[in-house]
Amino acid sequence: MKYLMLIYGNQEKWSSIPAEEWPEAIAKQDAFNKKYQETGELLGAYGLADAAAARLVLRKDGAPAVTDGPYLETKEYIASFCLLDCESEERAQEIAADMPWADVEPVEVWPILHEAAADL
């Protein structure tokens, strides 16, 4: 079954990490990604831009209507996400707990209930 892992963050938190600590943090995340790519359980890992770069899109009169956003009422936003394919929810939770950031930030694990065919 497939699962979505959501990792939250905010610019203030990222800015508080000393520059000399980033290489180690990135190396740990790269090792995590490699470990679970090799088992076939990690289908993809994606880091998102700061929330200030996000846009809200609606259709208005058949055309895109784009505004700045999202307008979050909290400082936290989705910073990255991973797509897993593993045998059980328990296994997805084990992988989430192994995420390098999981000791300081919770990782949300969502079961994916529907998937559209890629060849549509």
What does this entry look like structurally?
Belongs to the YciI family. The protein is of the alpha+beta class and 120 residues long. It is 28% helix and 33% strand. The protein contains 3 helices and 6 strands; from the N terminus they run E-H-H-E-E-E-E-H-E. The protein has helices at residues 11-16, 22-38, 89-98, and strands at 2-9, 42-47, 55-60, 63-68, 77-85, 107-111.
Name the descriptors.
120 residues; alpha+beta; Alpha-Beta Plaits; 4-stranded antiparallel β-sheet; two-stranded antiparallel sheet; 6 strands; 28% helix
Q: What's a concise summary of this model?
A:
The chain is of the alpha+beta class. The protein has 3 helices and 6 strands; from the N terminus they run βααββββαβ. The chain has helices spanning 11-16, 22-38, 89-98; strands spanning 2-9, 42-47, 55-60, 63-68, 77-85, 107-111.
